[in-house]
Design the sequence.
């Protein structure tokens, strides 16, 4: 079983090779370490390897880790589904939120972002595969949502995020990511972020323009879903 330093090195190599194969600068693809269900000690190990950006899905788990790792200079990203009663904590404790899919949530984040903090970096989650079980706004609703969110104070709309339907077919992987890229381009807004690609499909995502790849299993191993904190 690989150690975390070995896994970090392997994932960084995959990102570099995928970017080079696509004619992209590897520096334009950032690694977001998805650390849900993993202990703070694992994040500390990844930090020692130079990792600074961490993504969490469960708010209470994330807040506990933030407290335990307060001695480290980390950038925290929230990537899970958002309930209205969690927006204040998100606005107060995170630098990025990747999973906004409703104007109400964005408005609450804007209203609740502390004045002393910089604008909250935001991505809009799009349901590019049309799965009923998935969060995300419908592609047809994206332009109106993006236009409204871009006008809100205390937020900086950075781009789009997607979790396409899993598939082992590289062509199908690329088609889903290409759709997200095309949606971003059609918005005509000043957006610089495509948050897409995970452990099994990061190469396809990078080929289609990913700027953040959200990697969990390939860094930290299989997740323990016995009692996921909320």
Sequence:
């Amino acid at each position: 079983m690989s150690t975390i330093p070995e896994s970090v090195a392997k994932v960084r190599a995959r990102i570099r090779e995928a970017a080079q194969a696509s004619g992209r600068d590897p520096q334009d693809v950032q690694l977001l370490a998805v650390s849900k269900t993993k202990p703070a000690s694992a994040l500390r190990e990844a930090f020692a390897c130079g990792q600074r950006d961490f993504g969490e899905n469960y708010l209470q788990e994330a807040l506990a880790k933030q407290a335990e790792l307060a001695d480290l200079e980390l950038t925290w990203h929230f990537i899970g589904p958002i309930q209205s009663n969690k927006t204040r904590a998100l606005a107060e404790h995170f630098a990025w939120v990747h999973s906004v899919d409703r104007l109400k949530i964005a408005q609450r984040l804007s209203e609740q972002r502390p004045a002393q903090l910089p604008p909250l970096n935001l991505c809009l989650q799009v349901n590019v595969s049309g799965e009923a079980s998935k969060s995300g706004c419908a592609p047809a609703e994206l332009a109106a949502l993006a236009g409204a969110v871009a006008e809100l104070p205390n937020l900086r709309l950075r781009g789009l995020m997607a979790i396409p339907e899993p598939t082992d077919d590289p062509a199908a992987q690329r088609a889903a990511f290409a759709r997200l890229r095309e949606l971003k381009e059609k918005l005509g807004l000043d957006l610089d972020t495509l948050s897409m690609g995970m452990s099994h499909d990061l190469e396809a995502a990078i080929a289609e323009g990913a700027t953040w790849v959200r990697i969990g299993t390939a860094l930290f191993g299989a997740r323990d879903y016995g009692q996921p904190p909320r």
In short: The CA atoms of residues 32 and 214 lie 5 Å apart. Strands lie at 30-34, 53-56, 75-78, 96-100, 120-125, 155-161, 193-195, 212-215.
